[in-house]
Amino acid sequence: MNYKEEFITFMVESGVLTFGDFVTKSGRKTPYFINTGNYKTARQIAKLGDYYAACIKENMIGQVDALYGPAYKGIPLVVTAAASLYRDYQIDIPYAFNRKEVKDHGEGGSLIGYKPQPGDRIGIVEDVITAGKSVRESIDTLRALDVEVTSLIVSVDRMERGEGTMSAIQEIKAEFGITTYPIVTIREIVAYLHNREIGGRVVVDDEMKARIQAHLEEYGV
């Protein structure tokens, strides 16, 4: 089992990836839902870092000088990813994250951890990307420091279009030239889980597979 397949199983077992009837923040009905807020144990956050680290090593090492995690969900993600990169691969990469409010006393500023230097290549660590608003905010924050944002890593690519004809990931690429690396895509999830038992039950049977495919035909890119 490769790390992508392990990650899919891990999300289901953690109650992060569920199937049924849901409504997204944008108002779309969806047959599956990803709630990264359901990660809550030491084991889960340690394992999550391993999957992020595997994807970063495979795709981003050599094109980033530091990692950045936007508050709030990006903070534990960038910390656990950086720790796993060192523990699993002996890759010692700096990391930083931001405060929501600029601190006006002590050391001041809005960034904690590594202080990016002009010309640094930065990779953003996020959970999921929907409309891309938070990613754009991160890009604005980082570019104000005269650094280059080269890449973005997310847990799952829903492969759905935004308001226009492109997905948020495609919009980020077109607008900023930034490549997004998902650990897995929804199509990889469906292909792996179809009629496979996880914890003694099948979560994607023929009917659920058809529902997800119909959803992607309507909203996918």
Concise synopsis of the structure shown:
With 221 residues, the chain is an alpha/beta fold.
What can you tell me about this protein's structure?
Helix 1 crosses helix 6 and helix 2 packs across helix 3. By secondary structure, the protein is of the alpha/beta class. Helix content is 39%, strand content 26%. The two termini are 28 Å apart. The protein has helices spanning 3-13, 42-59, 74-89, 133-143, 168-176, 186-193, 206-219, and strands at residues 17-23, 29-34, 66-69, 95-103, 109-113, 121-125, 148-157, 179-185, 197-198, 201-202. The strands form three sheets. Strands 5-4-3-6-7-8 form a six-stranded mixed sheet, sandwiched between helices. Strands 1-2 form a two-stranded antiparallel sheet. It is globular and about 50 Å long. It is built from seven helices and ten strands.
Shape: globular
**Unreliable runs, pLDDT <50, ≥5 residues?**
none
Cα end-to-end separation? 28 Å
What is the gyration radius calculated from CA atoms?
18 Å
In the sheet with the most strands, the strands line up as: 5-4-3-6-7-8
Fraction of residues in helix? 25-40%
Q: Secondary-structure element order, as H and E?
A: HEEHEHEEEHEHEHEEH
Strand content: 25-35%
**Helical stretch count?**
7
**Arithmetic mean pLDDT:** 91
Specify the structural class: alpha/beta
Reported for the largest beta sheet, the result is: 6 strands, mixed
β-strand number: 10
